[in-house]
Amino acid sequence: MNRKVLLVYANPNPKAFNHSIFESLQKGLRTSGHEVKVKNLYAEAFNPVLDFKDYNALKEGSTPADILREQECIDWADGLIFVYPLWWFDRPAILKGWIDRVFAYGYAYGPKEDGSMSGLLKIKRAWAFQTAGELESSFMKFGGRAAIETPMLDGTLKYCGIANSEMFSYFALGQKTGEERNEILESIEKMASDF
Questions:
Q1: Could you identify which of 2, 41, 162, 184 might form a hypothetical disulfide with 46, taking C-beta atoms 3.0 to 4.6 angstroms apart as the criterion?
Q2: What is the chain's Cα-based Rg?
Q3: What superfamily in CATH does domain 4-193 come from?
């Protein structure tokens, strides 16, 4: 089954391993017939700050034009993939800000009759690829995988209605050989072809 996939990339360094992941995903997706739209947040100089003017406009049901364009990309897609480095146990600020502004109340989530919140996004599947220079054991001292996966998987994707979401983490990349890195990229390209 071919999908429409929105690929969101958040790394300022075009020579980072993240960029190679980003390219491998595009190649795997396109080769297998998926339609792909790309959001390169740094290259686009996306404004990640949810300021008071935007906050008020969203609250009043008037979505600012730049946010609406991003939401239209999400509405087009039935699959969503994120690629980013792990900074301070979380996503880079530009990606967190993209989510703050675009996954707005009334668009990505909203209230149910009982007052609890319900996810509203219609995305069928989401993946997040994150990389870290540290050994995985370094993160185990501070809450392990839950500490680095919960904000994106549970606090964002599942909260907004994307139940079928997975994270793929790659640690200690500076210690990997060129051959090991190539194996990772080949594996990612194959995964993407089966998305």
A1: 41
A2: 17
A3: Flavodoxin domain (3.40.50.360)
Q: What is the per-residue pLDDT for 145? A: 75
Q: Where are the domains of the chain?
A: 4-193
Task: For residue 168, list its beta bridge partners.
Answer: 129
Tokens of 93: 């600020």
∠ CA 177-179-182, rounded to 5° = 115
CA 43 distance to own-chain centroid: 16
∠ at Cα 14 (97, 100), nearest 5°?
A: 5
Band the pLDDT of 134: cuts 50, 70, 90. confident
Top pLDDT among 148 and 139 is at: 148
Continuous H helices in the chain: 17-31, 52-59, 65-76, 93-102, 136-140, 144-152, 178-193
Q: Measured between alpha carbons, how far is residue 83 from residues 8, 80, 143, 177, 195 in Å?
A: 6, 10, 22, 21, 15
pLDDT score recorded for residue 157: 96
Least confident of 27-41, 141-155, 156-170: 141-155
For the chain, count helices (H), then strands (E).
7, 7
